[in-house]
Design brief:
The complex is a heterodimer of chains A (159) and B (181). Chain A has helices spanning 2-28, 32-39, 58-72, 77-88, 103-126, 130-134, 142-158. Chain A is mainly alpha-helical. Chain B has 181 residues and is α/β, with parallel strands linked by helices. In chain B, α2 crosses α5. Classes of the chains: A mainly alpha (159), B alpha/beta (181).
Chain lengths: 159, 181
């Protein structure tokens, strides 16, 4: 009886250990979704505008493999992105660098938009009403003017 | 007819600050456009060869200018480039025959390290090779793709470039030309 209990306990412990080990292994191996989560923030260094998660060039395939290896090694998304930035340069991040004169590429569009707004506002405020400038004053004879006034008064009293 | 008095005295001229800002923007755009134009130019094929440092796969740091006095052949390649497979044995063979007189440097363009190392093992390449980290060297030489091979004389002056895979005869002719100069 005791031996059967011991065997049962040993088997249970074995099963639990196996489950734990496979669980650990599966936790260390990133899923394709986890790999793609990083890959979609990186751009193919060879084809402009194509993200690594949807690119089928060999270099992007290799990049996804490296992402998987680095995730399994416990590296963060930012560390992985930095690794590829150092390897392939800024184009792999799909955005201009934020240093030196390259700041202009970030600043210029907003500045131009602000400038256009300021220019538009200035124009709206200072534009002269051209239509009114050219409207001549009504040159109505006095008798017609008086008659018009009388007619209007009569109309208003009837209403 | 008499005109209705208006605020016609208001100025329609744009203010000075606006004109100054617009001029500044136009100047910046011209500078950026000029920069893009320069970058889009063809490869460097004449004149002083752009200097660079390269960390080889063996961990050694080499600098192009350190080889002044010796002709240098720089080959840009990648493990994913099938055309590079054709010329890899040709380059290695030429290096082994002429290493006393000519320096060969391999620059690995947009590649991953495991694939690049496998490529070097596959073709038993023994001349110095390294990854072009940040594409600094390929940007300096404005390469259009791989393979490309640049020929530099013993004074550090670029004598020519071969776009696409090089043949054994072409390479030998270039080596003889560089040695004889």
């Amino acid at each position: 009886m005791n031996r059967r209990v011991c065997v049962a306990i040993s088997l249970s412990v074995g099963v639990v250990l196996i489950l734990l080990l496979t669980g650990t292994v599966s936790a260390q191996t990133p899923t394709p979704d986890e790999v793609n989560e990083v890959a979609r923030e990186l751009y193919c260094p060879l084809c402009p505008g194509l993200r690594v998660d949807v690119c089928y060039l060999p270099v992007c395939y290799d990049m996804r493999e490296i992402i998987a290896e680095k995730l399994a090694a416990g590296e963060s998304k930012e560390e992985i992105k930095q690794y590829f930035y150092e390897l392939y340069g800024p184009k792999v991040l799909g955005a201009p660098e934020r240093r030196g004169w390259k700041w202009l590429t970030w600043i210029l569009p907003g500045s131009l938009a602000l400038l256009a707004l300021a220019g538009g506002a200035w124009w709206l405020r200072h534009r002269a009403p051209r239509a009114e400038e050219e409207v001549p004053s009504p040159d109505i004879p006095a008798e017609y003017q008086a008659r018009l006034e009388r007619e209007l008064q009569r109309f208003e009293s009837e209403v | 007819m008499t005109a209705i008095p208006q605020e016609a005295t208001r100025s329609r001229r744009l203010p000075l600050w606006f004109l100054a800002l617009m001029s500044g923007v136009i100047v910046v755009l011209i500078i950026l456009g000029g920069g893009m134009l320069v970058r889009s130019q063809q490869q460097v094929s004449k004149g002083p060869a752009p200097d660079f440092t390269l960390e080889t796969f063996d961990g050694e740091i080499i600098r192009l200018s350190d080889f002044r006095g010796t002709p240098v052949i720089i080959n840009f390649w990648a493990s994913w480039c099938l055309e590079c497979y054709r010329e890899a044995p040709i380059l290695e063979d030429a290096w082994r025959r002429h290493k006393e007189h000519v320096m060969f440097i391999g620059v690995d363009y947009v590649d991953t390290e495991p694939a690049a190392r496998a490529y070097l093992r596959r073709f038993d390449i023994t001349y110095p090779n390294g990854m072009d980290k940040g594409n600094r060297i390929s940007d300096a030489y404005r390469i259009q793709g791989v393979p490309e091979t640049f020929f530099i004389d013993r004074n550090g002056v670029l004598q020519g470039v071969k776009i696409g895979p090089i043949t054994a005869d072409e390479l030998e002719a270039w080596i003889q030309k560089l040695i004889s100069e």
